[in-house]
Amino acid sequence: MRGRMAVNAVAPTKEQAEVQKIVLEEFAELEEMGDDLEESILLYRDNHEAYLMNGLDSLPGGYACLDASRPWLCYWIVHALDLLGRFDNKPKELKDDVANFLGKCQDPEGGFAGGPMQLPHLAPTYAAVNALVSIGTQEAYDIIDRPALHRFLLSRKSPDGGFTMHDGGEVDVRGSYCALSAASVVGILTPELLEGCADFLIRCQSYEGGFSAAPGNEAHGGYTFCGMAACMLVGCEERLDLPRLLGWITARQLQYECGFNGRTNKVVDSCYSFWQGGVFPLVQQLSRKEPPSYDPAQPTVQGGTWLFDQVALQRYVLCAAQLPNGGFRDKPGKGKDHYHTCYSLSGLSVAQHSANSGTPCSLGVDTLLRRTDGIHNCCVDKVEQAYAHFAKCPPVN
Question: In angstroms, rounded to a whole number, what is the distance separating the alpha carbons of residues 58 and 66?
Fold first, then answer.
């Protein structure tokens, strides 16, 4: 089977063995198709669009537990639609409605909360900024109170160089990434915000090679992306132990399913297609600051150029995580949700858009997505547009 890499060669847990069995059975059915395999793998764009648009309109009662994550839902849905190429053609009224709702989540003192009348928090601040950047209209940009956001981010600075997620909250590498990413894209990444960040981030690289939430903890896929992206924003990536990082991150692509797991000896999960797979372009950027351009009319690159099996990862996402009626799931046996839909598509985009040649590496029929930015995880054109817009704004004090 293509993509069976000699990694994670440890005895599987019971749960892992069960997942392997289910996924391999699905893959076996595909491989019986032989030369017709490529034509049998589809991306159900219309159904994904319908599922995502329904989420913007209303959500079932089961989503009440995410009442403090409403900017995240906006970001997951808008970015997923944008990756599919199905957002820019939406009515202006829809875009304004999403932007205005996010404005209601903005605290008068700066930063965004998980919902209207809630306390500001770095995680929904990052999500709200990314959602507004993905909308990409003047009205969306105008929602962001840059001076107040800068004051809020400064108020979250911790003496150890990290950031507290909220007033009295925890300090971890997510806070660093959320704060630095939001500040950078809206042009308020000042020396005061950067002070001490590099030392904290370097301390978060664990002995395994990946990043942990805080110094001394276990390496984890989400924290590794956050840590690496934050290092790129700060400019301290040259201080990392990159061989150890690459050793850990390449071992996260599982031997049989060929999706990524989040931690050592854990089960595959489609969201790590981005959280783990997204680290490889960041490593590439250490020697190449600009993403390669490509001509869509050119043939695709077979195999890809990142240090993981890009084609095999796409097969996991499209064949094991995708649901034909719309949406993506963690793994077979799980239900779909907007979080896994967003990060499955983000990881799929990373796997498709290779380095060096610049031509895409896509599996299946009409599966090619728009390119996502390696630092912010918004489509590249939206990030470039936002940087250009906010560069013209007055500096913050």
Answer: 13
pLDDT at 356: 55
CA distances from 14 to 261, 267, 329 (A): 15, 10, 20
Structure token pair of residue 319: 């064949």
**Among all residues, which ones are annotated catalytic?**
220, 263, 266, 269, 271-272, 330, 337, 340
Yes or no: say if 196 and 180 are a contact pair by the CB < 8 Å rule.
Answer: no
> Taking each helix axis from N to C terminus, what angle separates 92-104 and 70-84, rounded to the nearest 10 degrees?
150
* 96-133 pLDDT tens trace: 999 999 999 999 999 999 999 999 999 999 999 999 99
Report the Cα 391 to chain-centroid distance in Å: 24
More confident residue, 139 or 285: 139
The pairs formed by 48-52 with CB atoms below 8 angstroms and a separation of 24 or more are 48/80, 48/84, 48/326, 48/327, 48/328, 48/341, 48/345, 49/81, 49/84, 49/86, 49/326, 50/326, 51/325, 51/326, 51/327, 51/336, 51/341, 52/77, 52/80, 52/81, 52/86, 52/326, 52/338, 52/341
For residue 241, the SS3 value is coil
Q: What is the pLDDT of residues 4-41, one digit of tens each?
A: 333 444 556 788 888 888 888 878 777 666 666 677 89
Query: How wide is the angle at C-alpha 24 spanned by C-alphas 31 and 8, nearest 5°?
Result: 120
CA separation for the pair 103, 115 (Å, rounded) = 10
Q: Are 26 and 332 in contact (CB under 8 A)?
A: yes
**41: closest CA among 315, 269, 259?**
315
Of 354, 338, 376, 359, the closest CA to residue 80 belongs to: 338
CA distance 140 to 386: 10
pLDDT in tens, 32-67: 666 666 778 999 999 999 999 999 988 888 889 999
